[in-house]
Amino acid sequence: MNLDGASRARFIGEVIFLIDGTIFIVIGLVALVVAAIRRRAAGWRAVLWLGIWSALYGIQRINDCEFLVALLPRGMQVGVAYCHAFATYFVLVAGLLTFRELTLGRLRQIVTLLAGCAIAIAVVGFGNFVLTGEEYALIRLNALVAVVGLATLLIFFSVPRLNRQYGVVHDRGVLLAGGIIFGAEALLTNFVRPFGYHIDSIWDDAGFLALILSLSYVAMRQVYASERRLSTIESELAIARQLQFAILPTSTPQLRNLRIAAVYEPMTAVAGDFYEFLPVDNHRTGFLVADVSGHGVPAALIASMIKVAALSVVSSASDPSELLCRLRNVLSAQLQGQFVSVAYLWIDTATRIARYSAAGHPPLLCWRGADNTLQRIESNGLLLGVPFESDYPVRDIPFASGDRFLLYTDGFSEPENAAGEAFGDRKLEQILQDNPLRPAAELSLLLLSEVRAWQPPSTPQQDDITFLIIDVL
Q: Could you please report the per-residue DSSP string of 296-318?
């Protein structure tokens, strides 16, 4: 194929467009994959927008290859025109949103405003192209936003004090070098383009490549630093989980005529639920269940305080009202705005009398084996942590062989099925009625599996689940 000088230069230029466009699309796709894999880490959004930015720029470059476009079917050539117009306007949007993820405070607000302007221009500009076929109707406004944004960001990256105050970038030197190269070239290009002057596009690509590489380096450093922090936090949470399980009873008390089963399923690594046994002798023991408002580490710390507080009030184990009052007094200065619901059941197998009181807790369930009925027993005062003193009324509950008590936190009774029905409203009574002779340990496993199956498969556990089953033999 013989080409004159002008045709040869044009052909070489379009080959460069094809090569550069492919490179930027590949970089963009790699960044998108990394963002998808590392989406738990801080900084992944910067990688995401960087990938979109690079891919749009690459698409724009490939669309400039006229010889490649000429080889496509007619219908696809029309699509290429739409694709080019879209990339022309939205490439600036992706760029500004990338930088938005690297800024803080007032500078972030400025970049967000510029991105909003760029989005508005892009929507109107692309819409105008769809309606009229005129691609560059708003290109001067687009260039103006680009110039303002680049000038603002160059000043930000160049002044150390501003970078420290408004940036999340620690490798300022790397980003500054890439930003200066790209910014100087882009400012010049956007400044002269509206006046009909044209700078060779290879310099656009070189400047953009310098910026993309510097941004990629900075963003990935952020992602990996975040992952190291997450790894450290997860290790610490694993230790916290071990410590929290260590404060729970390691076994159930061995009492005459009673069989006890306990279930404790935290929603996260650590939980705000707590339970404790306060045995006195072979016939008498207390059962304490508590639920701290909220989840995670703050709730778990308060749960550990309840452990210490429970040990300090064990002398009041036979008097539920006195025990709850003393717990309230011990914890009141420590809760710091948190609230705790507590239920306490005292059982004496010699007298066959149970005593029950609670502080803002779900009702005690009592299954009567003699007539196969379920009683919901409420005896509530105010939650611990409420800035008012409260009395805690006590219910005396006679019991007989075949009866069953169930203490629980609301994470056990409140899960809803797809129809919005709570587990405790319908399913719980049915399971107890269908399994009156099933041992406490087996029933506890059945109840846990049923409450999990009650929720839609896609619904994660919404709260900590804790419950105690006490069977009277």
A: HHHHHHHHHHHHHHHHHTGGGTT
